[in-house]
Write a structure and sequence with these properties.
By secondary structure, the chain is an alpha+beta fold. It has 29 helices and 18 strands. The longest helix is centred in the C-terminal third of the chain and has 27 residues. About 3% of the residues have low confidence.
Length: 859
């Protein structure tokens, strides 16, 4: 790649570094003067010369081509019309507003403004969750605290490259450094809304500068006069999306599934990274042009002239995927042109939507770009046909090198193909990994290549990678390499050098491993349960991933696995419509980055905490969490608590925005239930939650009546209900209990006294379950007969004999228990009065709470 491309990318990335350095208290003065001083002190001499744009490209006259390129890129990234007003000297810096406060979702906006903490990026509540604006003195102190860490790390980066280095390594290292320290600092705040970070705006400016580098100076001059009116093509917005992901992960047998699942999922993340970087290399674009990557997809900016080359890249990628995955995985790769005018007045949202539609259509025409080549492959004989010895018992595919693998204590082994064995190995490496590394290598492969494991696929895309526990033994050939810490703590051990990019990689890496606490648990089981576990597990897998049978057995109550699928509601609409006319490329990038921080960063913290019992046993398994969705398997009671905690914290993370929410589906399955079927059922449960219409008694009314809403719900034990009804801290309706609170109260109430409960009759749960069943039977009858709506077409609340029957039975039980167990009598009496006092509206969900309590209490 021409060095000029990297140089202009660096100029774009650092174009406003003087303003950032000034705000964090590094030096006083005008931004241009501070920027010049920063370049002279912290940028290696070999790359200082082309950084004239950093010295202040806003001040006319614009003296050279590079400065004009960066100036136009800056304006397009901001999407704001030209202003001749300079920022006032000495104005107090402001914190960064949460990007979620700018969104309109579900017809609602955030009720109050929240600001990101001025803190280096780390997965910590104090550093990550927005809050009210602090007083100016505290804001100034927080900015100065940023300076200490940033100056130390930027100096270390300079020292590593002072005597010569590799510009691509320096560029990406600087990008990751700005991600860590400038993610929470606004790119501007004088007369503009400070809701785009310096990091997001600078990286988009760098990407656009690369796309504009080939423009003639006269064209730049014309565009700089009024870019919002120019139809000239500036860039291509390129999107890539891997399809077939769910079948690839789930369609494996139970034999060897637990050890292979995490490896398969993580491989898909590595594959996305490899393909995105492959596209960048083939188009000769730097890393700054990658706008977003996650959830099996990526978006990048390319030059309009790259369109023809992109077609060839698409064919190359399809050949590799078809060779190694035989049609199971496919990359949809599409692009749409962006004119200068598309960066203004919110037009970028429409382009984002258009690209999404093209990607969906491309998925329906998988591999058609291969033309005649595809037809030949389809009609060639595949495998040897029915050779059982070559058939893998995990994925079901034939492979000439399939072999039998035996675990300790097993009489009969399992036939596994090399790819499945490689995913198991990757999963094992990942469970104890603290670092992810990769190096660019020459792409390997070609005609006649057999389907390979994850290493062979990545190498075909020019990437060699691994997940390791420590830095020793990592390859160091002198070629560019990347070492990314998978935890905040691991960052302290990383040091930059002339050919190594270092940084932080957010990854939900929660894997249940058998430890000494599990030995104690097994020894403490009753003999019959201990024998049952040992039949399935002759030899405890010390230090290895727990099988599903153990995760089910370690559930509270009934031994079942919980399967959770969850995602953000209406995410596509948020990107296409949520920002309105305020949408620009920097804001879209900021929104993408913020959502990925939650699902790829904070979810790991939650899962690690909730999945670990008080005695130190891990019970949750993260299959994947990225983009805006997640999939978890584990002990069923821990899975339910995780789903609730994610929904609670998501609301806090998005600044309490009432229109931003998630929906989830949870199913309970036996340990040996086929995973693909469980995944399908969890997906159907999630769809059921998203299809729920419910009356919002908490929000504004229309004509004195509550508004009907959809989504923002959970489906659990076959019943969908809104999250606030399930139980979200203080979000429950005044005067009622949540399902979560009542279920745990009922479980404690019916638990035997010797186990810390109140020893209420189990019949209490059956009464409540039957009451709800009677209600739903009547509801279904009225729905079929059309009696379930009033004249206005609104759903109605049904009254019936279950109300007085329930009140009677509960009062009668309280009376019977008054002498035997006063505590139970009082609790049951209070429950009857609460139901009566709320006109039995809880009849719609009280049976769900009782069923939950019953499962928790079942031995």
């Amino acid at each position: 790649m021409e060095e000029a491309v990297y140089r202009i990318a660096l100029a774009g990335l650092l174009h406003d570094i003087g303003r950032f350095a000034q705000w964090i208290g590094w030096r006083k003065g005008r931004p241009a003067e501070v920027g010049r001083a920063f370049v002279q002190q912290f940028v290696p001499p070999a790359w200082q010369e082309p950084l004239y744009p950093v010295m202040g490209h806003r001040h006319r006259p614009l003296p050279d081509h590079a400065t004009k390129v960066v100036a136009l890129a800056d304006r397009l990234a901001a999407g704001a019309r030209i202003s001749n007003e300079n920022e006032e000297e000495g104005e107090q810096p402001r914190p960064l507003r949460s990007i979620f406060c700018a969104l309109t979702a579900d017809g609602q906006k955030a009720s109050s403004v929240r600001y990101w903490p001025l803190h280096p990026l780390r997965i910590d509540r104090e550093a990550l969750f927005p809050r009210e604006e602090a007083d100016p003195a505290e804001v100034e102190r927080a900015y100065h605290r940023l300076q200490d860490g940033f100056q130390k790390e930027v100096q270390a980066l300079f020292n590593a490259h002072r005597q010569g280095g590799q510009l691509p390594v320096y560029l990406e290292s600087m990008l990751l450094l700005l991600q860590r320290y400038a993610w929470c600092v606004p790119s501007a705040y004088h007369r503009v809304l400070p809701d785009v970070s310096f990091y997001d705006h600078s990286r988009v400016t760098a990407a656009l500068a690369v796309c504009l580098l080939g423009w003639e100076e006269a064209a730049l001059d014309r565009a700089l006069e009024a870019p919002e009116d120019k139809p000239d093509e500036v860039a291509l917005l390129v999107g890539g999306d891997i399809s077939g992901v769910q079948d690839f992960i789930y369609t494996i047998t139970a034999r060897g599934a637990t050890s292979a699942l995490r490896g398969r999922s993580f491989y898909l993340q590595l594959l996305t990274e490899a393909v995105a970087r492959y596209v960048l290399r083939r188009l000769e674009l730097p890393i700054t042009n990658l706008i977003y990557q996650g959830g099996g997809g990526f978006y990048l900016l390319a030059r309009p002239a790259d369109r023809a080359r992109l077609e060839e890249v698409r064919r190359e990628i399809s050949r590799i995927l078809l060779t190694h995955h035989q049609g199971d995985l496919y990359l949809a790769l599409e692009a749409i042109p962006l004119a200068a005018a598309d960066f203004y007045d919110g037009r970028i949202s429409g382009k984002w939507r258009e690209l999404g539609e093209r990607l969906q259509k491309a998925k329906q025409r998988r591999f058609t770009e291969l033309g005649e080549e595809l037809r030949k492959r389809l009609f060639e004989p595949q495998g040897r046909g029915g050779d059982r010895k070559q058939e893998c018992q995990v994925c079901g595919r034939e492979h000439p090198h399939t072999r039998e693998e035996k675990e300790a204590g097993e009489e009969e082994g399992v036939r596994k193909c090399p790819p499945c064995l490689s995913y198991e190995g990757l999963g094992e490496d990942l469970r104890r990994a603290r670092y992810l590394w990769w190096m660019e290598v020459e792409p390997a492969g070609g005609e006649g290549v057999e389907p390979g494991g994850w290493k062979e696929v990545l190498r075909a895309f020019g990437l060699q990678a691994g997940a390791v526990e420590n830095l020793a033994g990592m390859p160091n050939t002198g070629r560019p390499r990347w070492i990314l810490a998978l935890t905040d703590e691991a960052m302290s051990d990383l040091r930059p050098d002339a050919h190594t990019v270092i940084g932080r990689r957010f990854l939900v890496n929660v894997t249940p491993v058998w430890n000494e606490r599990d030995d104690e648990w097994l020894q403490g089981l009753p003999r019959d349960r201990q024998r049952a576990v040992r039949r399935e597990l002759p030899q405890p897998p010390h230090g290895k991933i727990k099988p599903f049978t153990v995760l089910a057995a370690q559930s509270t109550g009934i031994p079942r696995l919980g399967v959770l699928r969850m995602d953000v509601d209406n995410l596509g609409k948020l990107f296409s419509d949520g920002l309105g006319e305020a949408a620009n490329l920097s804001r879209v990038a900021a929104l993408s980055f913020a959502i990925s921080l939650f699902f790829e960063g904070w979810v790991e913290m939650l899962a690690a905490r909730i999945g670990r019992t008080e005695d130190g046993r891990d019970r949750l398994y993260s299959i994947y969490s990225g983009g805006d969705d997640l999939f978890f398997v584990g002990s069923w009671d821990a899975v339910v608590e995780l789903a609730r905690a994610i929904r609670v914290d998501f609301s806090h993370f998005v600044a309490g925005h009432p229109g931003l929410h998630t929906s989830a589906g949870i199913v309970l399955i036996p340990a040996k239930y086929p995973l693909y079927q469980a995944a399908r059922e969890a997906g159907e449960a999630e769809s059921q939650a998203k299809g729920l219409r419910w009356r919002d008694e908490r929000g504004p009314t229309v004509g004195g009546k509550p508004i009907w809403r959809q989504k923002d719900a959970l489906c659990f034990l076959g019943q969908a209900l809104p999250w606030h009804r399930f139980g979200l801290e203080a979000a429950c309706v005044e005067g009622t209990q949540s399902v979560h609170a009542l279920a745990h109260r009922l479980e404690r109430l019916t638990r035997p006294k010797e186990k810390g409960g109140a020893d209420a009759p189990k019949a209490l749960l059956q009464i409540l379950i039957r009451l709800q069943e009677q209600y739903w039977e009547e509801a279904e009858r009225r729905s079929l007969s059309g009696e379930d709506r009033n004249k206005a077409g609104e759903e109605v609340v049904y009254y019936g004999p279950w109300m007085w029957r329930g009140y009677y039975f509960l009062k009668r039980m309280a009376g019977r228990e008054r002498k035997r167990n006063p505590e139970v009598a009082q609790a049951v009496d209070e429950l009857a009065e609460r139901l009566h006092g709320e006109d039995f509206r809880a009849i719609e969900w009280i049976g769900l709470a009782a069923r939950w309590a019953e499962l928790l209490g079942r031995s």
